[in-house]
Each structure stands twice: as structure tokens, then as C-alpha cells.
Amino acid sequence: PSGASGFPNEYSLAFDGVDDILITTKDASIMPTDNLTVGCWIKPSTWAFPDNGQYYYPFGCLKSGGWGIYFLNNYNGTVTTFSSIIRVSDTGSGAGYLQPSAGTGFSSTLRALTGFHYIALTYDKATGVASLSLDGVEKGTANAAAGADIVYSGSNVNLMFGADANTDTTGQNFFGGNIDECSVWNKALNSAELVAVYNSGVPIDLLTDAGDYASSSNLQGWWRNGDTEGTSVYPTIEDYSSNSNDGTMTNMDSGDIVTVVP
After folding, report:
1. How many CA atoms lie within 13 A of 99 on its CB side?
2. Which of 100, 140, 155, 176 has the fewest Cβ atoms within 10 angstroms?
3. Which among 175, 46, 57 is positioned nearest to 115, based on CA atoms?
4. In whole angstroms, what separates CA 27 from the centre of its chain?
5. Are 67 and 61 within 8 A, CB to CB?
6. What are phi and psi of 82, to 5 degrees?
7. pLDDT of residue 120
8. How far is Cα 259 from Cα 182, in angstroms, rounded to an integer?
């Protein structure tokens, strides 16, 4: 399949929700301290996530202090929150975590979704605002002191997709379903750019500025999860940015590169 512009997108990774993870290279370029956008396309096994009190992370590096996006079920597994977390140097009362969230009021809409949707977390150092979005639409914000940095702890570990990082080689709070087109920028993409990246449900070429998207030069990591060579890349998922922070499919096999895409 290709988007309207002819940009090819043929593969995604299928995560089993048990121990499958894509582990990226440990590198400062994909853990910026000033500004951040991290996002990916996800298709959970079900948007009505199972189990009570269970966290599901499409990506995370919280062991590093860093950040992540997660889904959390509560109230006997019938209410799901769409949330995120990011550690900064000054929340107004010292270093701590911001947690932009769509809240429980969004649960019924969230649980009725089908197919792929684009999730993103941004942080703007100048304003101190962290923002969580779905399909380019802001769903929650949280404020730090203007000028606060993103901070990472001494136990720095790799950014992972399909789970939150637990150690350099293991994850926790695993996500079950498909993940595609994972990316990190050292810039807080604005609302127009996020809408452009969502592109009405069709992924775009993040290396090329087009329309309202003007941040290709800020792209620090882009893992296309099988494109453009499909199963021949296993177990390495190439970073298509200029930084070459390739990812490694862990506890997975070549059959987890699938032709299920946005």
C-alpha cells in the first residue's frame, strides 16, 4: 500500500504483548533534553484493553527518568485512560513528572476505536508544556516551569517500542498489537505539523518537508518497522534518520514483520 503521494508503507511490526520489544540504540540524539516529539502508529489487539490495573506502553524509557505513552485500565477493566509521562527539571516545585492525559471521560471514545491511529507526546522547553495527542488532536496537557529541561536519571537505558524499558535488554508493561513508523524529533511539533504527520490516516515521508510539516531537519530517529525491504532486515530495524540508531527486534522473529499497515 502507498499513500496518496505515492510514499510506500508496506510493513509494520506485530508485538505479542508478552515479551516482544524493539530496542533502539542507546544514544543522546534520541533522548533530547530541550524539546521533544515522539510518536508512532499503533493498532492494539483491541482498543478495549483487557485486565484491571494493567499498563500498556507502545513505547517508553521511564527507567531513564525519561518519558513514555501508556494506556491504563481501571474500574474492573471497563475504563481505559490514554496517558503519558515525562520527567523535567522543574515542575514548579522541583524536578518531577508531568502526566498529560486524556482522562477517563475519553474512555468510551477510545475503546470504540478500530484500526491504526497516530499517538504522539511533545514537550516545548520554552513554554514548559507537555502535550499528548491522538491523530494530531491534542487530548491532554501538563505544565512545567518555562525553561525546564527534560532530565534523565543515572540508570540510563534504551528507548523501547512495544514496552516500557525495564533494563537495557528487558521491558515491562508490554503492548500487544501492531506498531509502525516510530519517530523522535528534537523539536515540539506544533498542532498543524501533527495533523500533517497524521495525514488523514496515511503515513508521510518524514525526511521531506511538505505542507505544514517543516521539521525533517529535526528528525532524530525513524524506525519504519520493516520498510522498505521487509523480512530481509530481520532482526535489525533500520533508523532512517541520519543518526543510524538502528533498532533490534528482541524475543521476536521474522514473521513479526507483517503486511498490516495504516
Report:
1. 10
2. 155
3. 46
4. 17
5. yes
6. -105, 115
7. 98
8. 16
- Amino acid 178: pLDDT: 98
Coil, strand or helix at 213: strand
CB 249 within 8 A of CB 13: yes
β-strand 176-185 against 79-88: which pairing, if any?
unpaired
Tell me the pLDDT tens digit for each residue of 115-139.
999 999 999 999 999 999 999 999 9
pLDDT at 93: 78
The residues facing 14 across adjacent strands are: 178
Please state the rounded mean pLDDT for residues 238-252: 94
The closest alpha carbon to 222, from 203, 244, 202, belongs to 244
| Residue 142 half-sphere exposure toward CB, CA atoms < 13 A | 20
- Residues 193 and 212 sit within 8 Å (Cβ to Cβ): yes
Q: Which H or E element spans position 223?
A: strand 219-223
Classified as helix, coil or strand, 203 is coil
Helix (H), strand (E) at residue 185: strand 176-185
Q: Half-sphere exposure of residue 1, counting CA atoms within 13 Å on the CB side? A: 14
Residue 256: phi and psi, rounded to 5, are -85, 0
Contact yes or no for 150/86 (Cβ under 8 A): yes
